[in-house]
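lol forgot to send this yesterday, sorry. struct tokens for the thing we talked abt
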């Protein structure tokens, strides 16, 4: 099985190849340079594995949530690549990938739930809760909320102090009241974790064609306003 994964969701750009259990990745923090770097990184990863696009089984990409521009860059690139060789695409949650990466970085966190957060701006965060049993699925619906709403939701879910926190969205001062065992605000999304999460989804035939692929913004009204502004130019 060979899956090429791409991500430009946040302040990093990464490409990873999953090939029969082995992963090759290129990762760089380049918040404003994604477009120029992405395709050369694809070429590097494929060349290292001595593969070409037709030799892949599928592509994987972060479907969101995340920044409007960041999501569109990777998704548009994957759509073009997948369409060119008629391969399926596996969409993966950016919050789930963030959780898997944090678990990989912090093996001492064990199997405790991880609450991941990305800054959604406008004093809000994108967030979800992930465990080891079903790492692709949040234990509650992924949401965009202000910090106070998140705190209330965490209390309602009964997590108490039995979870860890990961992601830059945890920087809001109000979230200090959340009783996480530990937090990693520097955690970032890696394409290697998107590739790992894509494997069981591909095996379960949870794929899309390039034409069907759409980003998940959660904050649909903001996305609509941005699209309207772009179309009016």
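and heres what i got for the seq, position by position
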């Amino acid at each position: 099985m060979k899956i090429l994964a791409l991500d430009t969701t946040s302040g990093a750009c990464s490409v990873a190849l999953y090939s029969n259990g082995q992963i090759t990745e290129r990762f760089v923090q380049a918040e404003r340079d994604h477009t120029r770097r992405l395709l050369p990184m694809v070429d590097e990863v494929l060349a290292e594995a001595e593969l070409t696009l037709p030799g892949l089984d599928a592509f994987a990409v972060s479907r969101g949530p995340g920044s409007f521009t960041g999501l569109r860059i990777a998704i548009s690139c994957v759509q073009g690549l997948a369409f060119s060789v008629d391969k399926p695409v596996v969409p993966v949650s950016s919050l789930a990938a963030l959780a898997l990466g944090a678990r990989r970085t912090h093996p001492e966190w064990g199997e405790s739930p991880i609450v991941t957060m990305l800054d959604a701006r406008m004093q809000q965060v994108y967030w979800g809760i992930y465990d080891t049993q079903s790492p692709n699925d949040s234990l509650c619906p992924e949401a965009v909320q202000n910090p106070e709403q998140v705190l209330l939701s965490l209390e309602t879910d009964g997590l108490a102090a039995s979870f860890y926190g990961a992601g830059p969205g945890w920087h809001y001062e109000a979230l200090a009241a959340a009783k996480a065992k530990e937090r990693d605000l520097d955690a970032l999304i890696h394409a290697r974790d998107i590739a790992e999460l894509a494997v069981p989804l591909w095996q379960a035939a949870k794929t899309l064609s390039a034409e069907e692929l759409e980003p998940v913004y959660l904050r649909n009204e903001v996305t609509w306003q941005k699209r309207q502004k772009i179309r009016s130019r």
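The two ends are 44 Å apart (CA to CA). anyway ping me if u want another try
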